[in-house]
Structure formats: structure tokens, C-alpha cells
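Students often ask why inverse folding is considered easier than folding. One informal answer: many sequences map to the same fold, so there is more than one right answer. In these notes we will look at a single instance of the problem. The structure comes first.
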């Protein structure tokens, strides 16, 4: 596919170059777990090529679904085109993708150190700090990356816009600070529609594909767009650890890409209207959304094509108000995850960021909104009645901010 095509066109046609030759129009699904071998020698060569991160030889076999699947490969090709990357590697979840990225750049490479720019998605933050993968992690602010590097640093991890407070980090500047150390950018919130980290020098653009790429809340997956050399290393980790995305999930994701630009733009427009409404609400102490704060270096304008559809807000009534609002919404579903066609509301400190150390955990009065495709006036009305319910609780004698109890902060590690 030519680089001159508009992203909307790539979203529809990417990864479909072989369909005409197959004599089909809709995406096929290959559910085979094993594949016929042409002979022992070529079968063995095929196995070795894919088990070490390569692609199936033209005259060989795909051998086994843990090594390769054509339905998954088509989705990877489409995502790579959208991200302006040479390749992409899909995994069974976003956390599986992040785990593979860390393993591929530490351990066998001799590196034992990772630099992570906070804030990060809670699962990533927890994984890096847990020691499970045998790495040491230095957490820092975006302008402290260079100072945090060590001789054994193998990776720099950054998420922008960040989860949940939508902080914007200057990708090009972080890449400059990292020097020869590869940078992986979690691009889940922005999607390839609004941001292409590889164009800014990042080595990898990672997605929890569960979110906007799939867009319908019916598939869990992760994917990393990158160069071919990095893709080989990631495919090797995937083959050894068994983290391959199921072909049905790949089919759903590939189909989801066709409407990704339309969905993101519509959701973004609704988010902007909701943000403007929230700013004037007395129940809201602060709104977190790209572009609301000062941007003296023009980072947002330079690296993004929009502000996205995620919003965070801090409630004046503290945890008590936040808790009441999540329970009182009718159109916003109280649930983790994001990026789907329906709107969601959740409390990061109690759920997605529960495993994060207290000093890096979002405040107890912060709520996160994922804006869907509903009518924006209906969504605003839903928030208004939920705020009224919280005000009613305050009038009943619960107006003071409340620190959440330990039981209130028990929740899922994964969004």
C-alpha cells in the first residue's frame, strides 16, 4: 500500500492485499492449529525460521498456530501500515505485548534496567516494579530520562497521553534523551488516528488493542508496531511463551480498524463538548484533558492530530462524591477498559491503578471517562443527574472528602 494514501483509506484496505488472490472479499478466518508439512526437511526449516522470529518460507509451511497464523498476520500488516511501521506483532493481551517488549530488550540482551516515565497504566507500572521479569526499574518524569539511564538500561517506557490523567509527554525529546536505548510508547489512548510515535523516533508503538482498535468490547489483545528486526525478537518471545493472539480475535480487530478513524473522531468531538461542560460544573474541581493546560513547547500540536476521547476529572466532594457518581450513571457503564462504542466510567485508584505505589497512584477523588458513540447531550444529561445524586448525598451529611477504605480500593489489576 502506498504511503500517499489517507489513513482513512489505509484503515479500510490495509492488510487485505492477498484477498483477491484468494477469491474472497470479506476477511477469512483460519482456525487451523496445525498445518500440513511439504516434507521433513522443509517442515523443519519452516519450524526453525518461525521459532526464531522469522516468517514462514515461501516454499514451506506455517507448521503450528503458535508460530504463525495468516489471519493474525493480516491484522498485523494493517496495523503496521496505520502506524507507519515496517512490521507489527500481535499478542493475546496488552500486558502480554508489554511483557514481550520487556523480555526482548532485557535478559538475554544483558540489560537489566528499564526507565519508566510516570504516569503509566497501572498494570504496566505494577509489572515493571514487581520484579517478576527480573528487571530493575527507575521511575521518572519526562525531563529526567537522560539522568535515569544506566549502562545496563535496555528500554525506556512511556505512555502519552497517559493513563489516567492524560499527561502529554514529548516523544521526540524522550527519544533524544534515550539516545541508543529503544523507546516504547504506549499509544493506546491516542490510536494511530491521532498519533504515530514511530514518526517521532520511537522504536515501538504499543497498543492494548482491546480498546480503540477493537472498539466493541468483545476482544482482548495487544499489538506492537516496530521495525522488522524488533519484530523478529518479539515474534521469538511470542513463539516461546505462547502469547499468540487467537485468529478470531485478530479477525475482530482487523474488522474494527475499518471504522477506527470514524469512531475516534466522533468520540473526540463528543469528549470536547463534555469537557467544556465539565469545566463549568461546581461539582468538578479539575478536568484533565489534553490542551487544557499550558503547552509552552507546543508538544500537543507537534505530535498529535487531535485530543482524543478520554477524560479525567477530580470531584470536589472527594471519594464519597466519586463513588456516588460511578453508581448513579445510567448511560455510562461503571466498568474498567475504554475505547469502545459505549461510554464507561471508572475509579482508577480503586481499580486499574490499585497495585501502583501510593505516591504514584491517582487521587481518590479522580474519575476516568471513556466517551463512546452515544448522543453527547444524552451523556451530559446522564452526568448531570449523577452529579445531582452526589450532591444529594452531600446534603444528607456526607459532604466532606472521604479517604477510601481498604475494601473500597480492592479491585481488578487489569483494565
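Output (designed amino acids):
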Amino acid at each position: 500500500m502506498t504511503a500517499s494514501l489517507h489513513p482513512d483509506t489505509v484503515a479500510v484496505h490495509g492488510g487485505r492485499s492477498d484477498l483477491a488472490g484468494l477469491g474472497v472479499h470479506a476477511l477469512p478466518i483460519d482456525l487451523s492449529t496445525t498445518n500440513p508439512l511439504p516434507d521433513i526437511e522443509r517442515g523443519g526449516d519452516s519450524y526453525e525460521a518461525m521459532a526464531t522470529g522469522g516468517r514462514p518460507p515461501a516454499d514451506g509451511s506455517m507448521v503450528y498456530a503458535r508460530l504463525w497464523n495468516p489471519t493474525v498476520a493480516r491484522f498485523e500488516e494493517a496495523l503496521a501500515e496505520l502506524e507507519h511501521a515496517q512490521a507489527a506483532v500481535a499478542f493475546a493481551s496488552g500486558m502480554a505485548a508489554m511483557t514481550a517488549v520487556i523480555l526482548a530488550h532485557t535478559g538475554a540482551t544483558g540489560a537489566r534496567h528499564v526507565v519508566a516515565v510516570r504516569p503509566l497504566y497501572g498494570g504496566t507500572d505494577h509489572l515493571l516494579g514487581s520484579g517478576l521479569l527480573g528487571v530493575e526499574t527507575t521511575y521518572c518524569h519526562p525531563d529526567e530520562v537522560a539522568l535515569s539511564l544506566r549502562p545496563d538500561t535496555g528500554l525506556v517506557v512511556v505512555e502519552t497521553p497517559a493513563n489516567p490523567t492524560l499527561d502529554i509527554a514529548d516523544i521526540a525529546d524522550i527519544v533524544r534523551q534515550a539516545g541508543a536505548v529503544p523507546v516504547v510508547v504506549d499509544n493506546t489512548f491516542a490510536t494511530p488516528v491521532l498519533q504515530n510515535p514511530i514518526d517521532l523516533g520511537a522504536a515501538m508503538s504499543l497498543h492494548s488493542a482491546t480498546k480503540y482498535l477493537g472498539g466493541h468490547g468483545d476482544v482482548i489483545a495487544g499489538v506492537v508496531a516496530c521495525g522488522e528486526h524488533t519484530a523478529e525478537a518479539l515474534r521469538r518471545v511470542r513463539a516461546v511463551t505462547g502469547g499468540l493472539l487467537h485468529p478470531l480475535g485478530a479477525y475482530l480487530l482487523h474488522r474494527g480498524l475499518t471504522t477506527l478513524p470514524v469512531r475516534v473522531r466522533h468520540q473526540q468531538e463528543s469528549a470536547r463538548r463534555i469537557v467544556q461542560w465539565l469545566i463549568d460544573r461546581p461539582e468538578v474541581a479539575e478536568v484533565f484533558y489534553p490542551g487544557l493546560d499550558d503547552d509552552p513547547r507546543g508538544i500537543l500540536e507537534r505530535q498529535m492530530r487531535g485530543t482524543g476521547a478520554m477524560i479525567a476529572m477530580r470531584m470536589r466532594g472527594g471519594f464519597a462524591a466519586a463513588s456516588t457518581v460511578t453508581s448513579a450513571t445510567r448511560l455510562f457503564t461503571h466498568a474498567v477498559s475504554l475505547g469502545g462504542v459505549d461510554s464507561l466510567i471508572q475509579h482508577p485508584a480503586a481499580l486499574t491503578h490499585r497495585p501502583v505505589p501510593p505516591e504514584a497512584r491517582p487521587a481518590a477523588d479522580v474519575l476516568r471517562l471513556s466517551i463512546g458513540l452515544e448522543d453527547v447531550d444524552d451523556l451530559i444529561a446522564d452526568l448531570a443527574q449523577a452529579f445531582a445524586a452526589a450532591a444529594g448525598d452531600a446534603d444528607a451529611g456526607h459532604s466532606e472528602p472521604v479517604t477510601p477504605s481498604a475494601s473500597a480500593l480492592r479491585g481488578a489489576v487489569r483494565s
